[in-house]
Amino acid sequence: MKIAILGLGAVGKGVTEMVASKDLGISITGIADSKSGCIDSSGLNTKSILVKKQKKGFCGDKALSAEDVIKKADYDVLVEVTPTNATTGEPGLSYIRQALKRKKHVVTSNKGPLALAYKELQTLAKKNGVALRFEATVGGAIPIFHTLEHGLAGNEILAIFGVLNGTCNYILTRMADEGLTYEQALLEAREMGYAEADPTYDVQGIDAAIKLVILANTIWGDGVKLDDVNRTGIDLLTPDALKLAEEEDCTIRLIAEAIPKKKLLRVAPRIIEKSHPLVVEGTLNAITIETDMAKEITLIGKGAGSIETASAIIGDLLYIRDRYVERA
Questions:
Q1: Per the count of CB atoms within 10 A, which of 99, 118, 150, 271 is most buried?
Q2: Residues 248, 148 contacting (CB under 8 angstroms)
Q3: Rounded to two decimals, what is the model's pTM?
Q4: 147-301: CATH homologous superfamily?
Q5: How many whole angstroms separate alpha carbon 292 and alpha carbon 156?
Q6: CA distance 53 to 36
Q7: What would the DSSP string read from start to end of 276-295?
Q8: Tell me: the pLDDT tens digits for 245-272?
Q9: In the chain, what is the straight-line distance between the N-terminal and C-terminal CA atoms, in Å?
Q10: Catalytic: 13?
């Protein structure tokens, strides 16, 4: 199976390295970053490309763009791992549309396009007889969509609850464990590489809300948008609030929850018992699925990271390889 990769940041690098190091029957025939691209139908020398990216800041020929890779490269699956834009979904949204129209399968970690145009993109994929997979958009390495699609097939999903942002979880963990202020914990998160210079998406609950929208649309097909989520971040929390929770043998976590029967879509700090399965430490993510037959299932794992996210992407690639490409 041949793939092309758009985006060579942490996630794109992780996917490239893992595909090259494992015997998966996958060949990389196209790669593009924001400044350049490279194409070779017989398979690229990914080691030299990664070295060039590290030394020069671009991966290939500056005359080639991401659009060139989409239109000209020989590939079965486009791996779209460019940065998320929650407002427009671009440029990833356009890249995914182009590939689907070219009758190419798509695997993406990009939350923006899925949150903004889930139904449109799934319709386009179905029309062109290809798959659109997005395991890496929610929960990092946690196989949430594979679980919903296969492990819980036949169950009615009644509700979903989750700790979906590792940055917020790290900050809350440190505030509770060490009595740090929000500002102190955020500074530490930045120093550890867990928080961006501008942490707005994380600490105001936007990132978790985007993931909740993707989950809700995938499970229930409600066509909800980011604006439909009632959202409160953690940036106004004080150590005193955590101390009060501690007195009741509880703690505070940023919880994303969707309950269709209550018409509830919410991301907010919640006081929960320390023994609750969603009370995970550090940058871990956790997702609880409430069903009619299996009752409650909780998945816990790494919510971010180059190799962890590559795990989810490779899982989607092998799904497509086994069900589409090898049968063609």
A1: 99
A2: no
A3: 0.95
A4: Dihydrodipicolinate Reductase; domain 2 (3.30.360.10)
A5: 6
A6: 10
A7: STT---TTEEEEEEEESSS-
A8: 999 999 999 999 999 999 999 999 999 9
A9: 11
A10: no
